[in-house]
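Hello Y.,

Per our agreement to keep a running log of every chain we model this quarter, I'm adding this entry. I've kept the format consistent with earlier entries: sequence first, then predicted structure.
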Amino acid sequence: MFDSEYFPYAAAVIIALPFLVFAKKFVYGFIKLKKQEINFLATKTNSEIKLQALERMTLFLERLKPSNLVMKFDKNLQPHEFVFLTEKNIIEEFEYNASQQLYISKSSWQDIITSKNNIIQSLRKTYEDLNENSKLEDFKTVFLMSYLDSEDYIADTIENLRKELNKII
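Predicted structure for the entry above:
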């Protein structure tokens, strides 16, 4: 039996077989861990992108608040000029942030659109309700008061974004 010319080969196969099995298990285990690591990093990156989108849209909503809008632009403007510039500024900033809808839930995005539209509508309505001789300060006061007297839909939208954030984290 030991005199066979195949004995060294048989011994080598018997000795090498367990090492090959362990090497195979090690390689497959390593590949599995790497796949899990890649999935974890992809999930983490996706969460970071969603977080940034929520931050940007929260900032947009903060800028939409009438208390922040009335501080913009020159005090010597006429009310119609202020309304035009403010509306233009809101629309431009909204369009700049429009890509964030990819990372935000549909309901939150719809709330953001509703808040934007309500502010623009409030600007226009306030202007239409003022008499023609009104000054910009009068317009701003009426605009602020009308927002304070209504439902705080911007704060509600920010709160909804906060709840969405808690789902991510």
